[in-house]
Structures are given as C-alpha cells and as structure tokens.
Fold each of these.
Amino acid sequence: MNTLLKLNDVHTYIGQYHILQGVNFEAMEGQVSVLLGRNGAGKTTTLKTIMGLTPASKGDVEFRTHSIKKSPTYKVAKLGIGYVPENQGIFADLTVEENMKVAMRKEDTATFERQNYVLELFPDLKKFWKKAGGHLSGGQKQMLSMARAFINDSKLMLIDEPSKGLAPIVVEKVMEAIVEMKKQTSIILVEQNFMMASRIGDTYTLIDDGRTVHSGNMQDLIHHEELKRKYLGIG
Amino acid sequence: MKMRLSLQHLCFFLMLAILVLLPFVNDSRTLIILLTQIFIFGILAMSYDILLGYTGIVSFGHAMFFGIGAYTTAVMLKQMEPTLSTFLISIVVGMLLAGFISFLVGLLTLRLKNHFFAMLTLSFSGLFLVVAEKWRSVTYGNDGFTFKAPEIFKDRMTFYFFVLTCLVVIFIALYRFVNSPTGRILIAVRENEQRTKSLGYNTLYYKVIASVVAGTVASLAGSLYAVSLRFVNTSVMTMDITLDALLMTIIGGVGTLVGPLLGSAVIEYAQHALSGLARDYPIFERWIIFFGILYILAVIFFPKGIIGSLRMMFWKWRLKHKEKNQSSVALSQEKERFE
C-alpha cells in the first residue's frame, strides 16, 4: 500500500501561539486514517496545515512524495485534496445546486457521474436542490459540504468532525456515506466520537498538545484501554 | 422561481417604460437633471455593489476611478474637438485607464485583510487626489475647469436618454455578470474566502476581476458626471463620492444591484428636496443635519437596506401564508377523516 500523504515533524503557529509542535503522520492510499485527540490537541490545525490554510513553519508536508508545504491552498485543492471543514463552510446565499456548481472544477461527464453518485448517497440534497444553503438543517449542511468535496476527483478527503452537533440518526447516515466514499477515495478523518471513528477507521494517530503521541491500527487501539483513557478520556 | 423571474422582468420593463415616457409627460428641466444625476450615481453605486455586496470588499478609494473617468473625459473634451466621437473615445480611454489602475491597485492590495485593504485604497485615492491638485497644467488644480460638451448634449433630453441607455446596458451587463459562474464564485468569496480557496480557487484572481469591473464601471459614471456638469475639479476624487456610493449601496440593499439604484434615487432626491426647502424654511439651510437624521433612520428601520428589508417582509409573508395553507389543509383532512 502506497503512502499518499506524509507529515514530517510539522510545526505550525497561529499568530503567536505554537499549535503544532511536531506532528508526524502518514495516510495510506485506500484507507481511512483517523486523527484522534482531546479538544485543542491540534487535529483541526493539522488538517488546515495540510490544506495550506495555516501553513507549517517547520517540517514538511508531502503529497505523493511532492512537498506541498509552501503551496497555496487553491493549488493543494487542485492536486486532488478535498476538505470538509468543521463548520461545513456552506455558502448560505447560494442554492444547493449553486454550491455544487461552485465546487466543480470541471464540468465533464465524470464530474456529473460523481454528482449523481453523491446525490444517491445524500437524497436530501436532491430534494432541496433549489433551496438556499443557509436554509438547510445541520445534517443537510454536513451532507452538502461532503458532497462538494467529493464532486471533484479527490484523491484524498480531509473530513473534520462530521458528527459534531448532529442527531444520532444523521450521524449514522453520515457514517454510511463515509464508508461508501472510502470505496472511491482515501480519507483523513478527525473525529471526537470514538465509536464512529473506530467503526470507520483503518489506522489512527493520536495527537496531544500539538504532538503525535501514538499511531497504529485502529483494531489495536480499540483494545488498548490505557491509551484511550490517557489521551481520549474514555475506557 | 419562474414566476419570480417573470415578475422581475415585468417590473424592469415597467420601470423602463416609465423612465422613457416621463420626460415627454413632464419636461421640467429640474426633473430631467435630477433623474440624470440619479442614473449616474446609480451606475456608480452598482459598481460599488460589485465590490461590497457581491465580493465583500470594503473600498474607501472608489472615488479614484470615478475621478479618472471624469478627468479623462473633461481633459479630452477640452484639449480636443468636443464632438460625440471624442466623448465616446474619452469614455473608452477612461474605462481602460481605470481598469488598468484598478488591476494594479487590486493586485497590490487585495492580498491584504479587509481593513488593511480599505486603508490602502484610501491612500491610493489620496495619492490620485494630490496628483489632480498638483498637476495644474492639465487639471487646473482645485479650481478645476469648464469645457464644452458635444453639441448633441446641448439638449438635456438627449443626454438624459444617453445616460439612461448607459444605465440599462450596465445594469443588464452586471446582472449577467453576477449571475455567471464567476459571479457565483465572487459570492462564495464574500461568504467564506478560506472555504473558496480550499475548493481550488485562487481568490485573489477573482477579487481582482471584481475590482477591475467595479473600477471600469465607476469610470463610466465619472465620464457621464463630468459632462452633466460641463465642469470638473478635484471634488470628483474626494472621500465624499466614495461615501455617497457606500451609503447608496447600504441604504438600497447590498448585493442586490437594484438596491443601489434605489439608494441613489433616495439620496439624490433627499439632497435635492432638503436643500430646496431651505428657500422657504430657514431651518433647512442646515439640511445636511436632516440628511444625517435620514441616514440614521434608514439604517435603524431598514438594516438590510430597502430591497433587503422588502425581501425579508415578502419571505415572512410567504412563510405565514404557507403555514396558514398547511394548517387549513390539515384541518380539512382531519374533518374528512372525522366525517
């Protein structure tokens, strides 16, 4: 299995705050790699650093063996990295259709096929196709955000806390969708909900205080009570 | 949606018909001059709406482009034969110049965060104002200069129709622009720039496009303004012009295109009416105070602008109507079940 994305000793500052203080992480092709950690550990910043939204000041970020550390965000996205942010980032004044169109970088057959595929995954979007993004429910916004990231031929999807603030039934739907997406793309998932993360994830990386503290197979973590208790507060 | 579109078209054609017929029904010179001013400032305010309403950029230097258009036309009509062709060429030259300068200014400043950008546009505008003041051999400094307008515009009615045509063409062009894929990306930039970047768009490129479009259209407004006065001085580049455009956009409703037009009509008419009242009531000699009160009232009662507030009222009414219909349907279904 090939390494798709690699972070080597990444340090990131936000203003004067040293948020990431040495993150090492690898995402393999065809897998769901989960970033775990307590609130404020640096998971979201790790995703933002990969996207170039909060660029790394030290270390390196490699995508398919090429460094993307200094690439601007739009170039990172064009390489095939889709990003679903924590706050969904829906364009409230645009309709669902327009949100999808804005996300399309090409308007070819393959893109429309992917659009049909995501609309099958998220039938609610089809139902509210002409409705403004701002009028959707939290779950529908999450679906739209994921659909937008998936509509291009993304080689890697970065999904930040997809279950946050959603009703359990919607979380279930979102999880099913991620499992479906996994068949077509690699995923880096940031998730607080350990139940969900453990059901979807293949590998995990634990981040604490901006540093990578542990990584391995998800199955191992499920049975590692001490690690879960120490870094996730569960067990 | 289809219904709403056709209603919009109907309003557009109805308004256009009124504006075309009005000078024949009432050929008052004052009215025609007032309407011409409204149209000119309407074009300026629409150009500002592209920045503020559609891209979320606050610029304090928009008067710079208005001034570039005004000076280009005035200087060309003074230095060359004041014919219609000179005037038309001056409009094109002004627009190209403003487009080029807005491109350069945009490229230099639009990387910055919004407030830094606003301050930089203010300083660029100040720079151009100083150039206009000091380059006396061409601009005659603060005093400005008069010039002859093309013969055809001696008749105010002809100029009225020329400006109205410009307004309609610019409105349609901007309407198509904001509803194009590029327009959608501009809205996306306004709503969430980081998110737009992470969808693969170089947002600087789109912001520069908006800046060039806005600058070019503002220059056209400036050219028309200069000819309407047959005079130009440095006041066309002052902050007052930018503030007028800003207020027209805010009072009318940002991100609507029609709103700034309405805002221009409200402000121009208020200025005209309040200053006119001073002849009969001395208290209105301080009309600018009443004007300030009017602004405050407008912002309190129409925080989303006139068009924005009307839209909200319409949505609320529709929601209420829908709920009422749903409850009456539910009631009749309940009744049928019971019977």
Amino acid sequence: MKIKITAAILVSMLFTISSCTDLDEQLYDRVEDGNFGNTPKEIDALVGGAYSSLRGFADGISNNYPTCEYVFFLNETVSDEATIPTRGTNWYDGGQYQDAQKHTWKADNRMILSAWRYNYTGIAKINSIIYQIDKSSLTANAKAPIYAELKALRAYYYYNLLDLFGNVPIVVDFADTALPTNSTRKQVYDFVEKELTDAIPHLTGNVVYSKMTKNVAYALLARLYLNSKAFIGTERWQDCIDMCQKISGYTLAPDFFANFATQNEKSPEIIFAIPYDSKAGTVGNYMSSMSCHYLHKLTISPVGDYPWSANGMCAQPGVYSEFADTDKRKKCMVAGDQINLATGTVITMDNGEPLTYTETVTSVADAKENEGVRLGKYEMKAGETWERDHDLVVIRYAEILMMQAECYVRLGSADLAKPFVQQVTARAGEEMPATIDLNFIDKELLKEFTFEGRRRTDNIRFGTFFLPWWEKGTTEAYKAIFPIPSTVLTTNKNLKQNPGYPLN
Amino acid sequence: MNSKNKRIVLHQMWTTKSLVFMIFMLFLSAGMFAQGKKLVTGTVYDNTGTVLPGASIIETGTRNATTTDFDGKFSLEVAVGGSIEVSFIGSTTQKVQITAASSKLEVRLQNDGYQLAEVQVVSVGYGTQKKSDLTGAISTVTADNLVKGTISSTEQVLQGKVAGLNIIRPSGDPAAGATLRLRGGTSLTASNSPLIVVDGIAGVDINVVQPADIKSIDVLKDASATAIYGSRGANGVIIITTKSGTKGVSVVYSGLSSVGYVADNLDLLSANQWRGYVRQTGNMDAVDYGGNTNWQKAIEQTAISQSHTLSINSGKVDSGFRASIAYLNNEGVIKKSGLERISGNVNAYQYLGDNKDVKFDMGLFANIDKWHPIDYRIFERAYNLNPTIPVYDANGNFTSVGGNIYENPVEILTNRTVDNERHRLLGYFKTEVKFLNDFQAVANISLEHNAVAGGTYKPTYAIMEGRTEAGYAQRTYAEYTNAQGELYVNYSKVFGKHSVSALAGYSYLENIYQGFGAQRSGFVSDAFGYNNLGAGYNYRLGDVYSYKGKSNLVSFYARANYNYDGKYLLTATVRRDGSSRFGENNKWGTFPSASAAWKISNEDFMSGTKDWLGSLKLRVGYGVTGNQDGIGEYKSLSILGVGNDSYYDPVTGTWSLAYSPKQNPNPDLKWESTRQINVGIDFGLFDRITGSFEWYQKNTDDLLYTYEVPQPPYLVGTMLANVGEMSNKGVELTLNADIVRGDKFTWNANLTLGHNIQKIEKLSNPTYKTDVIYSGSLHGLAGMSGQYSQVIAEGYPVGTFWGFRNAGLDENGKIQYYNAAGNVVAESALVDADKTDLGNIQPDLTMGIGMNFTYGNFDLGITGYGMFGQKALNATNMMLNDPTRLPSYNVPDDFLGSGITSSPKYSDYWIEDASFFRLQTLSVGYTMPLGFKNSKLRMYIMGENLAVFTKYKGVDPEIGLNAQDGVDQTGLAAPGIDKYNNYPRPTTISVGLNFTLNN
C-alpha cells in the first residue's frame, strides 16, 4: 500500500509540474513589431531597411535572386539597346525574353510581375517603417525629417510604377488592408510630385552618398518633368531645367569608367546609387555574369577565378557600331575574339568554335553561343565573388547635364544645350556636332547610358519605342505602359487592367 | 521494497518451481510401471522453430494433461495406441498418434491465422486493445514480418507491408530517408508524413529506433483511430512498440555483410560511339579530348556494407530488461556517399506490489549517424560530359574543361569535404499505478533530442565554388528538443455481458529548435579544412548566424469503449489541442470521432458457417483530425527580423543590418482539418485466410498554402493561409494466407492492395482567390527558368501534368503538337489555351506482396512492391535528347536513331507511364538448432532490388514525391519529375548470420 501512495504522490506531482495551458509564442531571434523603434539606433536600423529594399528581395520568380535584376532585364530587353536571345535551349524560359524583344508581352510575363513586386514590396516596407516610426517615442520634430526621407524614397518606387504601369493603386497606410483600386496615371504623377516637393525642405542639402537628399529629390523631379509629356501629355521642359539647376556639389568624373569601378562610391559624379558590398553579403548587380559566356572567366583570370557566367543578355545588333572607335565609352561592351589568359590564344568553346563575340545575332529565338556583344560596363576583375562590390548607379551628374541639353533643344534653344553636351562628349573623347538636334541627343543618351536600365523611358519619350527595330515590328501606343500582372488582377478584383490589354 | 527483498522473492520462486518439477517427475516415474501405458517425452515448437512454453498436451478423450515447461519440454504417460493433442493459443491443435515406438516427440505447431488475430494486442494510442475488439482501421506488422536487409532508414521496414501506406525512397543514397504517404496525403505544403509514436511518445523521429529493436508496428489509418492524436492525426499514425525484456535469458547476435552495385545506368554514347558519330557527320570542329570515359561509372563504386547487432534480454516474473547495440556501415554506390551509424537501446521495467500494482518502465534510445552528403549536381554533369574527356589529364590532375554545367564530377566528389553527424536521443520514464481495482493511472515523461553538426570545405583548387572563393569553409549546428509530459487514467470494468473502458488524459509538449553556423572564405592554405574558420580572411556580413524558436502544444483527450457480449463494439474519442503556432483567433481545436463494429460471426445465427467463416466483423468509423505541421513558428505574428538586409552608412563607410518586417501576419492561421469516414470488413476463411477490406473517404478543409495575395496592400505578394479543400477516397485490401501448413513444408503469402483517388475540390474562398497554382517547377533545367509542368487546380489531383499534347515527329524530326481544336500544329503556333491535362502522378494501384516458405530447417522469403498507373515526367530524357548537345555534350544512345531535331520543350512527349513492380528481397536461409534450450544459428543469403519490371525509360521509375536534389520536401508541390536527380539504386547481395543463445 505504501508503494501505491508513494507512486500516486509522484504521479500527481508530475501532473502539477506539467499542468499548464499557456500558448503564448515566445520570441527569441526576432521581435514583435510593437516592441521596436525606441532608441536612435533602432530608428536607424528601421530606416536602413528602406534603403536595403532598393536592392530587391528573393521573390521566388527571378531565380530567387534579388528582383532588381529582373526589373533591369525588363527595361533593357524591351528597349533598343539590349536583348536576351534564346541560345540553344538556354534562356528560352517560356519565351518571356523573346516576348520582351518582340513587344508581344502578356500580363503573365514573370519579369513584369517581378517589377510590380519589387516596387510594391519596397512601398509596403516603407509604409511599415512609417508605421513603426508613428508608434515610436520620438517627438514630432524629430519625426519630420525621418518621414520626409522615407516618403521621398517611397516616391522613387512610385515614380518607377508611374513609368512602368501608369495607373497603379496608391497605398500609403500600412494598417489599411482594404483592397485598393487603380489611381489614374495623372494621380500617380501628382502624388510623386507632391511627395517629393513636400519632402525637400526636410531633406539634407549636403552631398551624402547613396542617401535621399535634396539633390536626389531634385533629380527625380527633373526626371518626372522630362517625361511629363510621355506620362501625362503635359510638356514641362523648363521645370526640368529649373530642377536640374538646383542640383549642386557634383562634377563629371574625368574617367568615365570610374563610375563603374569596383570602388565607384568614390566617383564625384554619382548622385544616387544602390550600394553593394561583398563583405556585406549583398547579392545582385552582377550584370556581366548574366551576359558573358561561360568561358569568359578565362579572359579575366588565367585560372578562371571569376564567378559563373550565364551567357544571357547582349547588345542588340547595331548598338556596338553606333559608337565611333575613338569613343572611350565603347569599351562598355565586350566584342571580338576572347583571349584565354593562360594560353594567349582565342578560347575554344565546347563545340570547337572560337569564342568571338559578334555584333550580329542570328535571331532572338535561335542565337549561337558566341553571338552578341556583351555588357562590360562595370569592372570585372579576377577574384570577384558572386556578391559584387560595385554599386548600382541610379542617377549620375551626366544625366543632369543631358536632361538640360535635351530640354533646351526641345524648347528650340539648341545653342543653350551646347555647354552641357560639351562636357559629356569631351570626356568621351568625341567631337561636338555643329548642330545639336533631338536625334543627336537620342544617340548620345544611348552611348552615355548604355545598359544603365533607363533606355526604355528614353525610347518612349523619343517615340522610337513604337517604331520597328531588330526583331520587332510597330508597337501599339498602349504598350508604353505594361499590363498589370495577371496574378495581381486575380487576387484583387477591384483593380482594372491597363487600357489596350486583354482583361486577363 | 528494497533490492534485498526482491532477491529473496526470486530465489523462492526458483525453489518453488524446482520443487514442483521434482514432484512432477516423481509422479511420472511412478506411472512408468502402469500396464499398457508409456511415458512420452517431447518438445513443442512454434512455426518458426522456437520452443513453446505453456503449450497444453492432453491425452485424447481423457483428462490426462500437462503443459510444456520453460524449455518447451513435456512428458506424459499415455496409453499406447492412443493419441495426444497439442495446442497453444493462436495455433492450430495438432494430434499425434502414440505407438510403442514413440519416445522423444518433436511437435511443431502452426499459426492459426485468425485465432492469432483474435488474441493479438494492438496499440491504439494511450493503451492497447485486442485486435478483435478494434473498431477503427489499423494494420499491424510484427517484427517477423518487417522488411530485412541493408536498411538504414526505419521507414523501409514497412515497404509494401501496409495497404494504403506508400513508402517512397527518392534515391539509392543510404543517407536519404524515405517518404511515407498514407491514403494519398492531405496537404499541399504541410508534412504528409504520418505521426510517429514510439513507446507512447508522439512526434518523434522514426529513425531514433533501429529495426532490430522493433517488436511491432501498428498503423492507424482512419480518422476514428487517429482522432485521439487530434491536430496531428490527419496523415495517419504509426505506433512503434519496441522490444522489452521477455521471460528468460537470451543473447542474440545478427550480422550482415553485403555487396551493392548500381542496378541501372542511362545508356549514353561511349567515346567510340561519339567518335563514330563525329566521323559520320564530318564535324571538323568537334573536339576529341582523347579519353575514353564512362562518366556515370566514374562516379560509382561497389558498395561494401556491414551491420552488426547484439542484444541481451533477461526477464523474470516482475522485472525485465533488454539492451542492444548496433553498428551499421552502409556504403553508397556513388563514391564517398554512405551512412555509418552506431546505436544503442536500453529498456528496463520493474513491477512493485503484490498484484503488480505499480510498474516503472524506462527506455533510452541513442544513435549517432555519420555521413558525407554528396553534391547531387554531379549526376547532371555525368550525363553532360563528353565521353572523350579523360577523368585525369596527362599530369594526373583532374581534367577541367570549362563549359556550363560541365565540371568534372569526379573532381567535385574528390575535392570536396562534407562531414555531417547526427545525434538522436530519446529517453522516457513511465509510471503505471493501479488503484480502486478498475483504474490505472499512467504518467510518462520523455525527452527527445536531435542534433546535426556539419562541416564543409571546398579547397582553393576545387573547380566548383572553391577557386572563386579561394577556399570555402563552413560549420553548422542545428538541434531540436521535444519535451513531453503525459498523464492519463484508464478505467475498465466488466458487468455481465457489458464491458466498458474509458480513458482521459492531458499532455504538454514543448518543442525548442535552435542552431548556429559560420562560414568563411579566403584561405591561404588548405591545411585546416573546415577546422579553423578564423583562418579565412574573407568575412562577410551574414557569415555567422544563430536562431532559436519554440512552440508548445497542450492537449486534453478522452476515449470510451463499450463492448456488448463480444458482438457489438463502440468507441468514441475526443481531443482538444491548443498550439502556440496557431493564430490568435484560432488557438484551440477540437477533434472528435466515433466508430462501431459488429462481430457478425459471433452471432448465433452464424453458427452454421463456423466451419468456413471463422470470423467476420464489420466496422464503421467517422472522425475529424488535423494537420498542423505546415505552420512554422510565429507565422501568425507581425514580426521584425534581421536578415540579410544590410544598409550602407556613407558617413562611417560601414554596413549595418536593418530590422525589417518579414511576413504578412495571419491571425486566423490554423490547422488543416480532415473529416474521414471509413467502412471496413475483417474476415477469416477456411481456417487459413485472414484479411481486411477498407473503404474510405476523406475531405480536407482549410488547406494551407502560400497563396498569392494582392500586393498592395499586402507586405509581400504571398501569404500562408487556410483556404482550399482536397478529397481522397479509396479502397484497400489486406490478405494473409497459410497456403500449405505441413509438418515439414509451409507456405505463407500476404498481399496488400491500395487504390486512392485524389481531387482538389477548392482553391478559393471569399478572401483569397486562386484559379490555379503552378507547380512541378522545371527551374534549373536549361531554358526553363520559371517554367512549371504541373498545376494544382480544382477538379484535379495534385501532380497533374499540364501542357501541350504532342503529335509525334514530323518529317524533319520536329515534335508536332495538337492544339485545343485537335489539329496538328507546329510549336510556333501553340497558344496557352492549347495546354491540357496530360495525366498525373497518382498511382491507380499500389501493391505489396510477400511469400515465405519453409522446408525443414530451410526457409525462403520473397517480397516485392509495385505502383501502377502513375505518370512521370522524364525531364532527364527531355533535356538529353537535345540536338544542340552534340558534339559538345553527351546524348543517349537512342537519340541518334530518334531523328529528333527540336529543342527540349515540355510536353507529353516526355511524360511516361511509370508503373513498376520491384522484386525487393529474395532470401534463402538455413536454421541450425544448437541443441540446447532452443538456441540456434540461422545463416542466410539475401538479394535486394533484384529486378524492376517497368516500361519506364529512365534509370528508375520510382521517383521521389518531391525530390529536389534528392531531398524530399514535405509538401506535394513537385512530385513525379525525374530531373537529373537519380542517385541510382543499388542491387545488393548480402550474407547474414543470426545467432540466438538461450539460457
């Protein structure tokens, strides 16, 4: 009997110990959003997230690499400067790149979805940071400049959406989870303009690399006004010039390629950039690896000490020959025989043919391995890792010069454009033409900003976007903006497709 | 009671026994002188040749009887010319004629199939029941029937043994586990693996237990049986009962050595075939590297494996213990791969009190696995590489021809070091107390601990990811602990013809996972391997990490059984589970069930059929179960985390980490809920055949999936939510027959058949709209980024291939297609609307079959299993039959004659019928009695995976349910795609020895 009693006590003790119905989740390696943003360092860590969002994120679409790569792909492949041809079986990927080249994209194109997600993820992230700041213990005065910085960054994303999709929903409140409806392109335009204008008084007037400053906001407004005609049908050339003239503290880097060097943060020309650093583990910005042939690494290092390359994007035929041989900028493309540094001879591809990048490309649907001139604008050097060190240049001073030049030409004062163009051509080692016309400006923009992800916007503004070019016929006017991605329309019935596109 | 007393008790017991025996012998010797009578002695064995203590011997027509002693021996004085009947519960009674010559008899009793089933005890969760009293669908496999051979994952022992339970090994890698799917699975993202219960402890790793320590496995299949496990019961429950000390003393050694070789390779061009092709086509550019390499063979090896198990068993009246230790070294058929395991198990129990009132029971399982994961990308390389490339160049270095996906696979295998080690530990302590006559209280506390430590080094000269990183070293550590406390009370009482039992209990589970890791690159010397990370000069943010999380599950459960006159049986259960993982609005779930059974054969009106219909039982059950595995910790909360979100501070020129929101919170998140109805019939025929037939239908609601959500307003474009509905219905048949039951010759056969139809019923609800989910990703195949081969759509099962229908090759060798209108068109004319249903990966029939023969001391066993009617995408073939591959890359032999000129494109041209039947094991053994106390030695030879009968053209038709790089993911998202992921299966020949010493 004693045994029974002892055991019964033992058992009931166990029961007492374990008698618990607490189901609260205990956090160890993360924090709930209500418990953060109370110290200056925590605020910095929150705002920092708005900047890191610019690199994009793994969205499961673009090979799980950061999405800003796909946004870049999209803008480049639909423009007249780059293409991603299908090589054998490689780079077919459901025909999405061929559709981009032929301007036959559909609403389910994954690059388009990726571009949408990139921008709206950035916006949602900034909205959530604003929500955190709202809840923090900072004073209203202390909050004002933080809000300004965040809203101006958010305006950058909305500018992208204005440019890419036009009639997009405007969402500014993190706590509001109602399904939004489209705003008109004009409303989005006005929103971007107002947000930037309102932010400017609170932003720093200093030159601060990679941060949202007065200068960056001016430059974004200048871009907005430059494309105002294309966006909403209203010309604002003079407003563009006025904004450009407010920008101060930058000069052209004497060496064009200093802007694309591994240490390009030292360039005096860069107004806004998205920083990358291999030691910070930032993945992305590896365009040369997306472009060069698999064996290209042997031209960089005799032992092939260079990351894997995918043999994808190349220049459209005709772009390379647009450059005069004397143009220093021509080296932004890699062409011709590729020499193996170990042997000193031309590299032999696996099929036995020499690796010679040709300007011609047989067709976008069936290109040979070696066809197409490659993107070599950013520095490639032996020992680089998959995580690159050069920063992605978004706005540099040359663009401010060229915007003013273009606006003066458009306003009929080509002479006033000269001093601006002069600086750009002089650095390239080129002569100024006798007369500066829009055609010259268009070609100069192509050469100055090759593969900088902005050619589509220029093509649309100059109207060339709608004319036939390599492997593309005439483009309908409605394609100046992309369709709203089909999965977005499926999940939000309040949204309407952009005009001209099939409903789903 | 102290140990001194205990020893005295034992001593007394032995004395008493000896005394009884002596008196007994005295009686016998007295009878020797009786007229016309004869003293017969003998030994009784069971069908396996083990001695049977406690068997009854009765002289026919008299009350003259005895029972066998501890060693199965008996002696009885019997009239000459008469006979004796030898019987034992669960065996057929055997009559032996006694003649003047009869002296030392050897009687071997055969199993009586359904009598055995009647008395078999089955674990039902928190207790046991007699098999004959079950009301739910439960299959039982006992130790004798487990699959044997070179087994490194415990799941394998059940292959083909349980109707409706599919066990799929995605590869022949000894370190790869198997996937269990009961009745089709119920979830898109969550785990579809049944809940594993070991000795009453739920939710443990099945491999914590070694096959040699298993006594029996009960598979709870329908909801009425599994609802007692509530939110974890939807995919079935596998209850493993391990061996514990049984009466007597024995020492058992089992050893096995085996040789394994790759069962089948792809037929690719040899170097000479390649040269022939180049000569024929006059391709002047083609590069002949001068070698003669079969790249598949170059990465393969003959696998030499061995295993040794030693166990000690000792059992007395009120205590017992069993201990075992095992060593296993399974080499893989791919170089460097394999699995080495050392494991141990101790179990001890002690009863206290006069009527065994209190029982203390404890067990400990521990094992250590060591293995070297290989990079599965080598298989694609082995298929790609030109056969004229030699493995080594003239200087003895690895050749390195630089192409895309063209790295030397032997170099990858050789130069890379990956050492992983896993420790598994499970310990429990159980107390059972009887009180108030009819009650029993059980308290069980347990701890499971599972830890994996890894080290990887890619030296500075390694072609893949070594050179570019200048050496890369990594260490990782991850662990989880699973602490549980259970307390339950059993009640049982018989009132005349009514018998009632009931159970009520509480359990608390706390799961903690945590880990850390570090990596560095940039090594001046390769001397340290992964042992000195500090020596790497290249340090990146995010190169060190650690994490920790916790969840808990609190449950209350109850069960009631009612049995009237052994004819009508009722069971009802309910469980209430609360989980910290569930969203704020759905913290608690209730899971009820009810079932009934009618033992028709026990009815009086059935007495006329007794001679052929030994037993007949009808069962009906309904229940609701859940699946909560798909919900990770903290998924319902709005959380800020630190990930790889670094940002640059231009003032200091340094990088810092941002704190960012990580997910769309979902406060409604909850378990997936499955309602299941099951009707079953158990029967016994002609004293030889037993079987069960089951019909079931199950509907799963609130399917978890990472649904597309509108962005904006959501933070990210996808969110984990409970939306869809899925159904599974099917039938199962289990048969067991003693075909021949002779003295010397016996023949037993068993068969399991399963048929399941799965359908997605719904994917949308008022909040979330999904038309179709694209699945079966072809990502990673050249030119197929972002491409999908399957759909998850309403009205179709998971794993439905969706694409273009081919119309064969045209005269130019281009694959033609049918458009939606049924006309033959070229590839360029296809539009999305032409895509259609191309079949699915769900088998129409799954089958397991086994046969055992004995002839005297010889035994022969055969097992096999098959799946029929399922489709597979042979993506390997699709990519290899590419006209642009030659001359650079290798192609299949068949390609040259195929005339194909189109580039790889996904269509049903590459979808094949993957039906197969595998001859899993064939063994021949000989048992040699050692002449004392039934000690014996069994020697055997066994072949595994001796033949596969299939029309499938790939290496192996048994393709992982979701195999990506050989790693089976939990969900059902990308099944049935043969995508360069074939770690080839070995054919293995083993020689083994079982040595049983009884004392």
